[in-house]
Structures are given as structure tokens and as C-alpha cells.
Amino acid sequence: MNARDAILQRIRSGLSTGAPVSPPPVPEVWPTTDASTEQLIERFTGELEAVQGEIVRCATMQEARQKLATLHGESQWQRIGSADRPLCRELAGDLPPEQVVWAQEGWASNEIGELSAGLVAAERLLADTGTCVVECGTPEERLLCYLPPVCVVIARVEQLAEHLPAAWEEIARRTAEPDRRGEFVLITGPSRTADIEKILILGVHGPKRLVVILVG
Amino acid sequence: MIASTGGPAPRQDDPPYQRGEPAALFIPCYIDQFYPKTAEATARLLTRHGTPVVYPDEQTCCGQPAFNSGYWEEARRVIRHFCNVFADHRWIVTPSGSCAAMCRVFFGHVDPDERIVGVGRRVFELTEFLVDVLGVTDTGATFPHKAALHIGCHTRRELGVVEPPQRLLQSVRGLTHCELPNVEECCGFGGTFSVKMAGTSLAMGQTKVENIVKSGADVVVSPDISCLMHIGGILQRNAETQHIQIKHIAEVLDAGVE
Amino acid sequence: MSAENLHLEGAPFLKRENAGLYEPAGSKSLGEATERSSKHNRAIAAEIPYWQDWREAARQIKSYTVANLDKLLVQFERSIAARGAEVLWAENAEEANQLVLQIAREHDVQSVVKGKSMVSEEMELNRTFEAAGIRAVETDLGEYIVQLARQRPTHIVTPALHLSAEDVGRIFAETLDEPFSANHQHLTNVARKHLREEYLEADMGMSGVNFAIADTGTLVLIENEGNGGLSTSTPPVHVALMGIEKVLPSINYLPVFLTLLARSGTGQKLTTYTHLIHGATPGRKLYIIILDNGRTNVLKDPAIRASLHCIRCGGCLNACPVYRRVGGWAYGWVYPGPIGSIVTPGLVGLDQAGTLPFASSLCGACHEVCPLKIDIPHQLVHLRHRAVNEPSPMNSAVDRLTWKLWAWAMSGPKRYRLAMKAVRLGVRLARFLPWHPGKLGAWTRGRELPKVPGPAFRSRFSRNPNANRNDPR
Q1: Domains of chain A
Q2: Cβ of A201 and C266 within 8 Å?
């Protein structure tokens, strides 16, 4: 008998003394309130900053492009890398190759590591926790989130949801799609650790800075 | 089989207490032998508030030491005797939270027999009986001391008894309440744990004593004398803390009432 | 199961008799840090009105999961295989190690980066890699530190909690050839620099699994450092290790678990990174190893089955006054603290770890904070009962006889009175003894004995002619 069958058989015989249990209902985690977009923006900003993230608000994508340029200059970035996604193209599509490299198959990890920042697009933003939901379909997109020292997330206010349960139906539906690969990563602030004496330090392996450019 | 869903242990308070119904005293062995004044105070408190007490003198023990050590068959023997002694008593009151917890929560683990579980459920800790059953919140006591209240873990978590001792203590005249830092942390007694893991037990007890000193109390009051034996033992061992007394809450609630 | 992995030295809790030993061997930083965490996490929980509802919901979901474990594992296997993953099964640590080595050989693996995985500690996987000449580096900062120090982790969430910043500085200076520093930021930067190289060169990345979602075929990994994301995306091969109990029936149940785990484990609303991995990333290979390693033994005993609900948040460790003083090594194996005291005997067997369930005052703080409402104290007394009846270091004919005598004395009023007379005499005489043996000595080492007052209560009461002894009315 192979390991799989042996284990399954042992599970069945171990459980034989148990009564059947029916699947519990999906619990309501947080109730959804009638928050306005302004309130959601305020909440998101507060939560993001509480986990040491940064927010750059822009009325239009045009303004966002200007602010990205400013950020680029102030932070003394060299080249940034970007996921090849519609929102990213809208923001950085006009930038020259000396400033932005677009994610491509076979892109080497150490090249990604040498970039000054990684630009990714949010699928949703969660106001109550300051979270960005990012889709990474390829290894290169995944590495863009983790390797460069700064992670920049471009998002529109329409993408704001109150909290995880409010966005969950969509996340669950898309996760269930059989052809989906890669990952959804829920990013809440820059990388951190408290492994030495429980003192909080940012940027241990992942990015030291997380910047959300919010348009709308 | 243990089917635990958490929450304090159910108790038998239905049909509700009728004025004048007697209560049977269950006095744990260590109170009977080493702190008889606590038992006397318990009897007086109940009688004074309209509950005649009876003391079935064939009683011995609730079986907890054997149970906690894993010797359930041996505990069952003692539990059976307990149930025989208290079978015909509707209300059973004991000045010990940990013994009440043993009866209400753990009798059923040892023997699911309805009769045994039923007797167990009728055991009440003293302060919960006074407050929840008799509706007493002021015992008319006077105890002019700086007192810190320590509630034993079984009383706090298995029985869910926290408010009754607090409320009763509030009514005591002259008593200055001293807040214990980290009041919920275990004192380290834990029954045989106190000798099986003596080093850790002592370390925990020493922290409790440090917190008692921080609180400024000159008396430690508790519904659990087992904890107090351990805390008191440490207090007495060190010259700087020897002046701090231990007192079972029954004695405080009975103090200065003529 | 063999327990060569049990570390008896420095684990007083695994010894049968230790009344003479002074157990606490934790460290000041561990004690203070866990207390801080505990207070913080309790505050976070207290501010939420739904906390108790979430706990109960999670308990029900895990209860359902365990009751249907075989079907759910089969469903998970199918779903994630459909997403390009290869699923392997291992009955024990030995088999799991062999599977990992096989995969490593197939892919010409020279170096491995490892994310945090308690299962890999059960397997002692790093020893296996070492023996096979494969370089394996822990990437979780705490695990990295203890690996460099050649020590074992002391806490399941914060493995290096027993070390001060100075300790870490010394370890880095010695093993990484770095100048000494005790500055937290600087030390973290050093680790970042060194591990960055490791990620980029590694041939294989390993991780644990926080939740394995059966209906969608999703691997859920949660972390704060980013090492989980990096070690599973830089190398071409990702191997995920999971115990059989890690499966969750549906993606719809995930939000409540993410919320409970983050708040109970680290006092956060959500961890920095929550990865929902949809099978194999294109261009990368994903293997999942499902491990039993004694969990089916735990399943057999209904009274401890709920220990399989544990989501490894570490909340019970932070709340436990015993753990705080003795640290993780006292528990002798992978899982310390209250959860360790029930999981270790379950997985390793009572014959090896039968003393662990006794290393507790049964205070119940763990049960109070456990996000899954696992009733640890109740499971502990149940395991004590099993330990004295089954082959274990606590199964003792002498103890049994003593307790039988005790029960005999305590089940008859006359015998009880006689026994108590003896005890009172003993306590009175003890004051005159120059030295106290055994358990008596364990008490008096740090405590005075109670004074023996006059007559016992029962004799005082019976002297009162008005006392109503037996009339129940």
C-alpha cells in the first residue's frame, strides 16, 4: 500500500468514532457599512500609514504621472521595473526605457533586484486594513513585488472596498477559476520583522517602502 | 469523551432557590484541617443571610488531586463517596472555587453517570452562591486594611466567577482595595504542580508576590485558599514580606459583624 | 515513532522527577517580550465585538474539517494537481525527507532557501540536506539567526526570542564575518544583504503551508518579512510541506482565519503578505508534500482530536506563565508551550513525552486566548490520565499504589480522619527536620508550611450541639 492510501485509511479508521459534522455556514467576519468613497479613502490612508506605508493622492492620471516623476527624482531612483498591466501602462507607458523596464518572460532575478522600485497594479484596495490586492500571474510579476527596495502600487479609488469580506466574493470567484496561475498577494505595508527582541524593523527581505499612488 | 465548547461550567440553579432552603456545606480537606476559621466564617455567612446550614460529616474530598494527576479510577472512588454523602442535598456550597470547578466541570469527565454529574452541578462556590443565588451584595463587614483580591484560575476560568467576589469585597467597610498588576496571571500553585515543577511554581509565585508588594496591600484576599497557601508560604519565607497576611474572603466578609 | 529528535538535556519537562531541579531557563528578553505580546494581543482582541463569534465559527469549521479530513485531502489533491502541482504523500519524517532529496536530485539542486515550516523541523530537514551535501539556508530572520547559532528555535513565531540584540550581533560577527553591532536596524540590514545573495542563487525554495484550500486548489502562505514570497518565487522549484490537518474546505472560510491568525499571532489586522498561490506559477515547478507523522494517532483519540485545529499562531505561548519563564527548549521538541504539551505527546507518543502534560498549572490562559478555542487544559488532564495508564515515564506502580491508598483513605470518614491526623502530625514535625525529602522538600525550598491550627472544622462543628449535621431539609 502506498503512503497516500495508508494515510487515508488511517484517517478513516481514526475518525470512525466520530459523529458526522455538517459544513458550517460562512461566518460574517465584519458587517459592511454604507461608507462613502471619501470615508473609504480616509480610512485606507490612515491604515496604510499606520503600517508605515505611503500614499500619494492624485485627482487624475495626468497628475499621477507628474507625481511619479517627482517621486522618481526625490528618491533618486535609477530604473524602475513595471508589471505589464493596463493601469501600469496608463501611468508609466510614456516613460523611456532608461526609466522603466517592462516585465517580460525570462527576466533575470538579479536584474529585477537591481531596480530602484517595482511598479504593480492593484486589483482592489481594502480600506479597513490598508491592504493592496495585487495579481501576479508570472514569476517576474511576483518578484517585482518582493525584490526591489521600493514597491509602488498604482490604483484608482473605484477599486476601494471597505474590507476583506467586502472584496471577498470577487477574490474568491477569481481564485476559483481553473486557469488561474501565479498568485494574489495581499500586501499590507512594507516588509517587516520583529524577530530580534520583538523590536519592529522595516525592509528585512521585501521592500522597505510601499507607496500607493491613488488616482481619483 | 470530553466535548468542550468553552464557557463557564453549567450549574443547577433551577428550580430557583427558595427563601429558607438549607445548604449543605462542603468543606475541602485542607480548609477542614488547616483553615477551620474559613469554614466557620462560611457557615456564619450563610446562616446570617437566611440559609440554614447542614454539615454532612461523612464528607471527605472531591477527588481533585487524584484527577489532576491522571488517576481517574482512584478519583472515581472518592467522587462516588462524595455523591453518596451529598445525594439528598439540593444546594451544596463550598468556600473553594477549585473544588467547585472539580465538581461542576470534571465529575462528568471521570464518570458520565447522570447522578454523579447531577450532584456535581449542584455545588456552588461561596461568593457566587451569596451574590447569584441569595442576591446578597453587602455582608455588613468591617475590615480596615489595604487588601488585594486574587482569584484562582479555576474559579476565574472554569467557573467564570469574577464579579461576585469583587462586588462583595466592595461592600466591606474600611477596606482599601489595592489593584494587583497582572491580576489574571496564575500564582503558580496548580496543585501537585507546586511540587512536581517546584522551580517554575516558585518563580510564578515570586512574581505574584512582587505584584502584591507593588499593589501596596497588607492583606491578600482570595476565594481560593489553595492559592493562598502557596502565596502565603512565599510571603512568610521572606523577611520583607512577612507582614503581608493572607485571608480567605469568607473571613473578610464575616469580619466585624456581630 | 522514534524520538531521537527529542532533546532531553535542557528539557526538564521530559524528565520523570525533577522536584529537585530549578526549571526556569528562559531569558529576560523572552519573558518580557512574550508578556508585551500577550498584553497587546489581548487588547487587539478585546477591541473587537465579534471576537468570540469568530472563534466559535473557526472552531466549527476546523471541527468539520477534521471530521472529513480524508475527503478534503483528496479534493485538495485533485484541485491543486489540476493547477499543475505535483502532490506527494509521506507517512513519516523519514519518508518526507526521502521525497525532498529525490526532488532535489531530479532538479540538480545544490542550494535551498527555506521559509518557515514547523513541519520541516519535525523532519529535521536541515540535517538531511547537510548529510546530502546540499546547502540549505533558513530565510525567516529568527530561523536564520538560530541556524547560524546552531541552536533550536524557542518560539514558533519568533524563533530567536531568547536572544538579545547583543547575542545576535555576536553571532553575526562570528559566522558572517561582520563587524559587531547590537543595533536592530543594522543587524536586519546585514541579514538582508546576505540572504539576498542566497535567494538569487538558490535552486529550490521550500515553504510550509498555512492553509490548503480544498475547493479552489489554493496554497495560502502568510508572512511579514517577504522571505516567503522570495523563497517561493526566485528558485525554479518550490516545495511546500504540510501536515494533513492544514486543509480548509473552502476559500469562503478563509477571511475569518486570516483575521484570527494575524491578530492572535502578531497582533496585526493582517500580516504584511498574504499569498494566495494558484498552483504552479508558469515556468516554475510546484511540489506539495502531505505529511502524517503521527497526526493519524491524534485523530484516533476523540479527546485530543481538537489539537489538530491549531493554526500555529503562538498565542498560547505568549499567554502561558510557564512558557514565559522556561522558554521553548524546556519542551524538548518542535512545538513548545501549551500547544506543544498536547501535540508532542500526540505526534511523538506518550511513551516518550508522557511527562509533558504534567508541566502545567492548568491555569487556562491558553484556552482563553486560543483563536480556535482549543481547550488545552482539558486535553492536558486527559493526556495525564492516558500517561499513567499507558506505557510512559509517568506510568508507575508505586504512584498507582499511593493514589489507591489515598483514594481508600478519602472514601471513608473514619479513614479520612485518621489520615488527616497523620498529615497534621507530619506537618508539625516537619518544622523540626533539618532537611526535607522529596515532594516535601520541593515545597519548603521556597515556602513556609501552613501552621497547624487547633481542632479541625469537623470536630468544632460537631461540638456545637445546635449544629444540624445531616438533615437535608
Answers
A1: 34-215 (3.40.50.10420)
A2: no
ipTM of this model? 0.97
Q: Which of B54, B58, B197, B207 to mutate to test the interface with C (most CBs of C within 10 A)?
A: B197
Amino acid at C200: L
What are the φ and ψ backbone dihedral angles of B165, each rounded to 5 degrees?
A: -65, -35
Torsion of CA C172, C176, C179, C184, to 10 degrees: -40
Domain that holds residue C411: 397-463
Longest alpha-carbon distance in chain A:
68
Kindly state whether residues C357 and C430 are assigned to the same domain: no
Burial class (CB in 10 A: 0-12, 13-18, 19+), C243: buried
Tens-place pLDDT, residues B113-125: 999 999 999 999 9
Same domain, C314 and C167: no
> Any idea what the Cα angle at residue C339 is, between residues C359 and C124, rounded to 5°?
100
DSSP H or E run through C89: strand C86-90
State whether C34 and C180 are in the same domain.
no
Per-residue pLDDT of chain A (216 residues; tens, 9 = 90+): 899 999 999 999 999 877 778 899 999 999 889 999 999 999 999 999 999 999 999 999 999 999 999 999 999 999 999 999 999 999 999 999 999 999 988 888 889 999 999 999 999 999 999 999 999 999 999 999 999 999 999 999 999 999 999 999 999 999 999 999 999 999 999 999 988 988 889 998 999 999 999 999
CA dihedral B106, B112, B114, B115 (to 10 degrees): -70
Residue B162 CB neighbour total at 10 angstroms: 18
Q: What is the C-alpha to C-alpha distance for residues C57 and C387, in angstroms, rounded to an integer? A: 32
Q: Nearest CA of chain C to the CA of B210: how many Å? A: 14
Q: State whether C134 and C161 are in the same domain.
A: yes
Q: Strands, DSSP E only, in chain B?
A: 23-25, 53-54, 92-94, 123-125, 146-149, 176-178, 219-222, 245-248
DSSP state at residue B240: G
- How many residue pairs bridge chain B and chain C with CB atoms within 8 Å of each other? 238
Q: Where are the domains of chain B?
A: 23-133, 146-254
Answer whether B199 sits within 8 Å of C362, measured CB to CB: no
Residues of A within 8 A of C30 (CB-CB) are none
* Amino acid at site C468: N
3-state secondary structure (DSSP) of residue A88? helix
CATH number, domain of C340, equals 1.10.1060
What beta strand segments (E) does A116-158 contain? 117-126, 131-136, 150-156
Q: Is A26 helix (H, G, I), strand (E, B) or coil?
A: coil
Each residue of C253-310: pLDDT tens digit?
999 999 999 999 888 999 999 999 999 988 899 999 999 999 999 999 999 999 999 9
Q: Which residues of C touch A16 (CB under 8 A)?
A: none
Type of residue found at A102: W
C83·A178 Cβ contact <8 A? yes
Domain finish residue from C389, C405, C436: C389
Q: Is residue C225 part of a domain?
A: yes
* Claim to verify: residue C423 and residue C352 sit in the same structural domain: no
Q: In what order do the strands lie in the sheet with B245-248?
A: B176-178, B146-149, B219-222, B245-248
